[in-house]
Amino acid sequence: CLLLAQRYRLVPTSNGPRLCALSASTSHILLSSPLLNSCGGKMYGTERYAATSDSDAVLDDFMGRIKKIMPSETQDVIATFILFILLPLGFIFEIFAILPQWYETLSEAWVWRVCVLSYLGLNAFTNVYKMIAVGPNGYCSDLPALVKPGYHYCHSCQLNEPPRSHHCPVCDKCALRRDHHCSFAAVCVGHFNQRYYVAAVSNLWIISFATLLWNWSFMWSALGGFSALQLWQLVVPHLALLARVISFSQFLCVMVFVFALTVFLFLTYLIGAQLFCFYRGQTRVEFLMDVHAYQLGFMENVRQALGRRWPLIFLSAFISSPLASDGLSFMMRETASVAETTKNM
What we know:
The protein is mainly α.
């Protein structure tokens, strides 16, 4: 730091000497210097200084945030496009094209159904936002200075990680109590954001179930009524179209139902996977690794993962549900049995 201070001109300020009139390239080299970083990012008590203008700094900060939020992997790009573009468009199509087949638009029956499903949709996307903003590691995830028992070394991050944390090859970082990588939000599901993931999927499942029922009735009305002999048309509608068994408009009605059925089945799988992990007291990673040390019983597993007030998380993403663990240490089956024995004594 002393060599750098002697090389560049300093001007006195109330907080000490400050760098003056550096070029953008020079300031970038200076601020990225390992020597400066080893001094805590400061020089003689001064703040880090960038020679770029305030507008450039704001623009760079904004672009950096946008780049950080936008998914980079192909699977994440496709999945986020489905979640944020196709699903909302499909919902708009359902309430303005399918639902009016039974309830007149803006009628009382139409309005209250749309309001309920709109609330569920807004709640789902609010939970998705919180899932991305909070992340698996929470707002503050500083690791302790001392390595505690159960920690393991991550060769990718070059850090000693707590128990149940694992490295994500997509995010290229470790996640506390990592469950899986959610491509639809381009973020890992872990200790601090699993409650938002479960709530979002549950709300979307209710919406998909309602739209599936609407599309089932709408499709059969377009096909002229239900018939077991026509079920093959749902499996291979393109062949039915080529054989001129159904018209193009009927083909579109079948495809709308198939899309709704696909979304419903996929969301059912996601909920089933979470319930299965809660039942076994595992994350998906721990299931693959056959880890059973954290099995505390179904209800306690749910409280450990979703928080003390877990029934309320489905109502709003902003309802607090404190977790029992800080993400660095977790209650184990042996620890729980000892605590229960001590309590009974």
